[in-house]
Here is the input.
Amino acid sequence: MTPEPPEEFRTLQELEGAAARRLSEEVWAYVQGGAGEERTVRANLEAFARATVRPRVLRGVAELDLRCRILGRPVAAPFFVAPMAYQGKVHPDGEVGVARAAAAAGLLGVYSTLSTRSMEEIAEASGAAPRWFQLYHQPDVEVERRLLERAERAGYTALVLTVDTPVLGVRDRQARGGFAIDASVPVGNGPDVLPPSRAPTPEGETYALRSDAAATWELLDELHRVSRLPLVVKGILTADDAHRCVDHGASAVVVSNHGGRQLDGVPAALDALAEVVAAVGPGVEVYLDGGVRRGVDILVALARGAKAVGIGRPVLWALAVGGASGVGRYFSLLKAELATAMVLTGRRTIAEVDRTLTVGWGSEERRRPGGA
Here is the structure.
């Protein structure tokens, strides 16, 4: 395990730059890059930058509690590790280091089909901490079935189906950087596990796609038949798709645009959140990922209806800077910043974070000039 160099990583604001200095141009392009001109990457950040928080004073907050439950499991804070592929390219500790740090911090970790370490190694590093398995639908149904069986045996407690990648988005920065996976960093879950197709294939006057791209909503029904794990659907941005998730038995949905990496110009995740929350109703949990950087961002997402938020690129930045110990330090700083923001908004518990926390929401919305 690589020791954390504290001179490079004292605050959350310093983390991105510290990671940029550590990673090769190729890997940095993979970590940072998005689809097309990266308008959606920027939109995710700008949506949080536009949010205004209403402070509350003299609320008697002598102690506070960040703990909550995600799909019934207790966690130390309302944020989790979002699934990210190929973490071994960022640091040798890879997913195992992230899992150890998440477990030590009492946090949920979600781990990718395309991890560079096997799901069993990640499970061992996670110990008793909650862990979910993220699935990219596979063209070979037997490969997929074996992945799900392994996930259940290894103690993963939910299945996260990513639905926004029937084909990989056009990622200009990543293409310019020349990012590629070679034999030195294999896919940890086996050589028969495939990533999504890179692009449609020209065939005369039409384009063809791999069989997994032809999946319909019946895929959710099939996953229920072959796995006992609760199903979380990741990549939802509209009410119509959220309704479909509920109709097909999803336990939760993740409002996500894949960190801006799939289709440029789609809504920021935060801007799509309210529509999805309203569509699914109280029986289905809603999470968000995309653009979360600071503790106050977490509060804003919770105030707008998210049960918890996934953290993506900042976890990779911390991994690049200090391996498992860097990720652990990042979690500590983010928890402390969330706790500070809760004190300054007069909230003692996560349950007290409600719509009145942000300007333009709850009772404030009715008092805006021209508001409905």
